[in-house]
Amino acid sequence: MSLPNCPKCQSEYTYEDGDLLICPECSHEWKDGEDASDSENEIIKDAHGNVLVDGDSVTVIKDLKLKGSSLVVKVGTKVKNIRLLPDATDGHNIDCKVDGIGAIKLKSEFVKKA
């Protein structure tokens, strides 16, 4: 059985991991038969309607209390080099690191593009 090329970068070096196919060159993950544009067509926008992309810097527009902690991400906190999670089911579609807090996930409705 031959595995399909990566739909994102057309690499022939794909491999299986459980029910996912993975490209070692661009790190794209997909299920066999899934169209590559499915996850890329979901556009994530900030609170003001600006389109966000991986690597953007954003600013928090509301104090955000972290569940299970006494920590708060204060309004005006700048977060650099975000990673988007377009398939997030809970609405937390930004993965990032905040200085003094660490790795967290944010909702795009509480940030603006910096």
From TrEMBL:
A UniProt-annotated Pfam family: YjdM
Protein YjdM C-terminal domain: residues covered: 44-114
Domain annotation Protein YjdM N-terminal: ranges: 2-30
InterPro entries, per the entry: YjdM, YjdM_C, YjdM_N
Family of this protein: Belongs to the YjdM family.
Name of the featured protein: Alkylphosphonate utilization protein
Species: Acinetobacter stercoris
